[in-house]
Design goal:
The complex is a heterodimer of chains A (205) and B (152). Chain A is mostly helical and 205 residues long. Helix content of chain A is 32%, strand content 6%. Chain A has one domain. In chain A, the strands form two sheets. In chain A, strands 1-2 form a two-stranded antiparallel ribbon. In chain A, strands 3-4 form a two-stranded antiparallel sheet. Chain B folds into two domains: 72 residues, Beta-grasp domain (Ubiquitin-like (UB roll), Roll), CATH 3.10.20; 77 residues, [2Fe-2S]-binding domain (DNA polymerase, domain 1, Orthogonal Bundle), CATH 1.10.150.120. Classes of the chains: A mainly alpha (205), B alpha+beta (152).
Chain lengths: 205, 152
Amino acid sequence: MRFFVLFALIATPVLSAGDNVEITLLPQGSVLTEQGLEAWDRIYEVASHPRCSNCHTGESDRPMWSGPSYGQARPHGMNIQAGDSRDGASFIRCVSCHALTGQGGNDAPHMAPQVAGTWQLAPVEADWFGRSSLEICTQLRDPALNGDRDITALATHLDHDVILHWAWTPGGGREPAPYSLQEHVDDLILWGAAGMPCAGDVSNN
Amino acid sequence: MQFVVNGQPRVADVEEDMPLLWVLRDELGVTGVKFGCGVAQCGACTVHVGGVPVRSCQMRAGDVNGDITTIEGLGTPEHLHHVQEAWIEHQVAQCGYCQSGQIMQAAALLTRTSNPSDAEIDAVMSANLCRCGTYPRIRAAVRSAAQKLRGA
């Protein structure tokens, strides 16, 4: 099985040097469902990690504070509401505190995280906080819920979104998301080449 | 580095990563803006940059991308801003330390919406902390200021 994947990687890769990661696409069907599901399990570890899920709050416009340094999960303090715009424009913009910076973000405990982009919640459709692996899996493969993205577009999105990159370099004593951005992109491509399987699908292998 | 503070061009010889709050208070002598927590948890350092409220302890000097307005530039003793008038009318301040940040945040709210509900006031003002607990008077003053701005 591993030989098959390795062969596919060597024989028919579509290499794309992303700005921040290597995007090595694999032929559709070149990865077994079982391996795709294993890759998904790792993807879910990332998607459900507080560095990611705290801002994937679905219909709620309140970012969450959860994770090892927060104790019990709770909504962002200070009555913060991101509103319909998801960036706080209707109330107090996220960037009022999460200042947009091109000079490297805060690295001190308790400081508002900063990136070189506009701090905001993920779209309503990307509803991850507290959701199960199956729920997020079925969301992420549905173009109606993933921003009409195929696997290449998802990988490119990961390459370019600086808020996502922050998840692996959060600073301030925060626990980073597991694996690395490159490993996460690689897993996504594996999952895509396996046909985006979710647990409970009827196996086609 | 060049800035426009309360309508006046100002120059400060500072590093790009110096927080705007330090630039204003220590380099330019604009001390109406206050240091509270230094980590964007209290709102005492709120100023407007390009008309938008920001926590000046979090914005680096090199990232400033607009004209800066502090409490000194919001109104004058002769011509107070409606929010400042309402603050006096309701005797909001107790110790007063957080009040310049409160007023700058409230002024920004009323620039965006002239008739905020209590829920909107709470949503916008809750990130400005007041250890004296003047919150009921803050809300009342914002409502009065909104009325004044609408000319009611």
